[in-house]
Design goal:
By secondary structure, the protein is mostly helical. It has helices at about 5-20, 25-35, 40-55, 60-70, 75-105, 115-120, 125-135, 150-175, 185-195, 195-210, 215-240, 250-255, 260-270, 275-290, 295-305, 310-330, 335-350, 355-360; strands at about 110, 115. A hairpin with a 2-residue loop joins strand 1 (about 110) and strand 2. It is globular and about 65 Å long.
């Protein structure tokens, strides 16, 4: 990994652990709850449930993007960088909270190779702890040494992205609950830019705001990051149907009824072949009833492989990521070292086995 990334990640990790300590001391209690005398036994379930997932790792690319965006448009890189480190928990905590709730909504048994939080701690505790972390996340804004105007911009941006995140999730839930609903590719892209892209957008916009960038720069950075976030969701869709995502079984999106891009591409390409679309739909219905061991899972994957819809989706995901990296360089300047690092970061995150020869040297 690039030495610049490692140096930033060390500071990011320290900030995350500082804002979510293993033990709630009196200073932290007062900062988070306004009362240092709260019994720690009532706080412990909130910290344990959320911190356990944070400690399992994750790529931390969102807070890293936040830091790189802050540096890329800063007049004083060191000052903006310090502000970005303080704000890193904002985006990582939202991501963590969303994963806790996602697993409940999708009935996913595993997260990062371990039982999902709701299985370990109970649904009631997991819902409550995940919700609490959404509200805890923006407290890091209060630690910034900046104007009240900038703090208000940061809060406003945070709340907007959070609303968009839940709207995207609402769309996804509606589609995978209804086996008869087949959204268009364009509808899917709108959904995923909300469900997944908002977290990337939150990171980029928070980073540029940390440098007190103008509204146009903040807006453009958010749009670019949202496209890249969508690209990585598509890549995750593809991995789910090929090698399988880490800690999960290949094809569990089919069992959950997820209308991923490979699936929608298959339907779009077979509009005039209702027999084929009906065959894939039946696979989804059967897999939903029988679970991950159902032969319908592998049959569905084979149908999409034969139709090249998985390959088409993969190319779309990679295209969004590459184009986004180039757009950041255009936004911040072709000689901007941090903009170049942003592109390098995203390209390095694409699994090597998915990269075609035409992209490896790009």
């Amino acid at each position: 990994m690039n030495k610049h990334f490692l140096a930033h990640l060390e500071q990011i990790e320290s900030s995350i652990k500082n804002f979510l300590p293993l033990e709630a001391n009196s200073e932290w209690k007062k900062f988070s709850f306004g009362n240092e005398n709260i019994d720690s036994k009532h706080i412990f379930p909130l910290i344990e449930t959320t911190r356990s997932l944070v400690d399992l790792g994750g790529k931390r690319w969102r807070p890293l993007l936040l830091v790189l965006c802050a540096r890329a448009c800063a007049k004083d890189k060191e000052k903006s960088q310090e502000a970005a480190y303080l704000l890193a928990p904002l985006v990582e905590f939202v991501h963590t909270a969303s994963l806790i709730h996602d697993d409940i909504e999708d009935s996913s048994p595993v997260r990062r190779g371990k039982p999902a939080a709701y299985i370990t701690y109970g649904i009631d505790t997991a819902i409550n702890a995940g919700s609490w972390l959404y509200f805890e996340a923006p407290l890091c804004i209060e630690k910034l040494n900046c104007s009240i105007e900038l703090k208000n911009r940061l809060y406003s941006n945070y709340l907007m992205e959070l609303r968009r995140l839940h709207l995207g999730q609402a769309m996804d839930i509606a589609w995978h609950r209804d086996n008869t609903k087949v959204p268009s590719v364009q509808e899917y892209l709108k959904m995923v830019k909300g469900k997944t892209g908002t977290l990337a957008s939150l990171a980029a916009k928070t980073g540029t705001l940390a440098s007190n960038a103008d509204e146009e720069t903040v807006k453009k950075a958010g749009i670019i990051a949202s496209e890249i976030g969508a690209g990585f969701q598509i890549i995750d869709d593809v991995i789910n149907l090929t090698t399988g995502n880490p800690g999960k079984k290949r094809g569990d999106d089919i069992v959950e009824g997820k209308k991923s891009l490979p699936v929608l591409t298959f339907f779009e390409q077979n509009k005039k072949n209702p027999q084929k679309t009906q065959e894939l739909s039946q696979c989804f219905i059967q897999a939903s009833k029988e679970g991950i061991e159902s032969p319908a899972v592998e049959k569905a994957i084979t149908l999409m492989e034969q139709n090249s819809s998985i390959e088409i989706a993969k190319k779309k995901g990679i295209e969004l990521i590459f184009n986004g990296g180039n757009s950041f360089i255009k936004l911040f300047g072709k000689d901007n070292e941090d903009a170049i690092l942003i592109k390098e970061l995203f390209i390095s995150m694409i699994p090597k086995e998915l990269m075609g020869a035409e992209n490896k040297d790009a």
